[in-house]
Design goal:
Blueprint: H1 3-19, H2 23-29, E1 30-40, E2 43-48, H3 49-57, E3 72-80, E4 83-92, E5 95-106, E6 109-119
Parallel strand pairs: 1-6
Antiparallel strand pairs: 1-2, 3-4, 4-5, 5-6
């Protein structure tokens, strides 16, 4: 599988974990030292992976259980050796997010090292 295909699979697993309110799934796609940072309507939010996983798990019923609309687009993916920059747009919790992921290939697996997010709508 190409790097691009592996990165897309990681992004897909990321989105599946959000839609299923799956904290373990979130932890599986992020590097243990990752940070999740961005702006929600109430201001700047900065989280560790565990904090973000807890936030995702707290969304009950899960977006899938509540019938929320799904939308995920990979807008760009640039690979440079064992690093990559990825931009995605997804629907989550009634908002449209534009995420920028810094990714690393660690022990042959692509993981998200940081996530910057912006709410579009």
């Amino acid at each position: 599988m190409s790097d691009h295909d592996q990165i897309k699979a990681c992004v897909d697993r990321y989105y599946e974990s959000l839609c299923g309110s799956d904290a373990d799934g979130v932890r599986a796609v992020f590097h243990e030292n990752a940070r999740i940072t961005g702006y929600l309507p109430d201001g700047l939010h900065e989280m560790t992976v565990d904090e973000f996983a807890g936030f995702v798990a707290a969304q009950q019923p899960s977006p899938d259980e509540s019938g929320a609309e799904r939308m995920l687009e990979m807008l760009s993916c640039e690979v440079a050796g064992a690093t990559a920059g990825v931009r995605i747009r997804e629907s989550y919790l009634g908002m449209i997010f534009l995420d920028t992921f810094g990714m690393l290939k660690v022990d042959g697996e692509w993981v998200i090292y940081n996530k910057l997010f912006h709410v579009e709508a």
